[in-house]
Specification:
This protein folds into two domains: 170 residues, no CATH class; 41 residues, no CATH class. Helices cover 26% and strands 12% of the residues. The chain contains five helices and nine strands, in the order H-E-E-E-E-E-H-H-E-E-E-H-E-H. Helix 1 packs across helix 2.
Length: 260
Amino acid sequence: MGRSPPRLASQSLFSASSQALQRLANAPRFIGTTLPGFTGILPPWGRQLHYHPHMHDIVPGDGLSQARDAWLPSRANCSVPVRALSPLSRALFTHERHTAGQLAPIDPHVWTPPWNVHRPATPPGAPSWPSLAPAVFKVAISTRRSVGLPDRIVTFTSRTAGRTRARPTRLDGRACMHRFLQHVLPAGVMKVRPFGFLNATCRLTTDPLRPMLTAHTGAPLEPPRGTATTPAQVICPHCGAPRIVLSRVWPVHRPLFDTR
């Protein structure tokens, strides 16, 4: 993907992945609708802060009918085939780059290898949210990964593909800032975009979706009920009375680099 301008390149990734999913979901042998619901996420970094833009799509699996009055289930073994999704998304992305006039600067060898499309299955319901939240709110590097700053050499942990052991990566301060800042998206470019019946243009709330899901699954779905929780009181160790919080003083975090 071209480094300049990243705005058009990011738009091409979103457009290619969404069109590929919608085209395959429209096939009658899969779901049979152009309204599958999925959320696209664009993280442009790798494990060691390298520039590695790629797409994450969280797909519920089923879809909404064109008339928006029926819930259409997908196949039991898959929603859309990965073998078809990989070349289709690559072809759509190539077309987007050609339309934007940015295909010529890219080496033609880039389009020769097959694209890697990975599709892990997640159990339905609440267990799927732990995989959704980190992908939405994750940044290029977290504070807990930074383990040291001796002599202005930033040390952070990372994992290579297929390994669970975290290994240290050491970078000069300028090199670390260079790797981190290249993952800041341009102004106005959203990192997360909903598509299908999750998009705001669908104008369909969750209230009419629940009867459709009930008719399909046979299990009644009720809106989630929030539980009111009262904040825990802090008891004074001397008199046993509840303490009254007047103000809070938060600790000051250490700067990432030594400014001396």
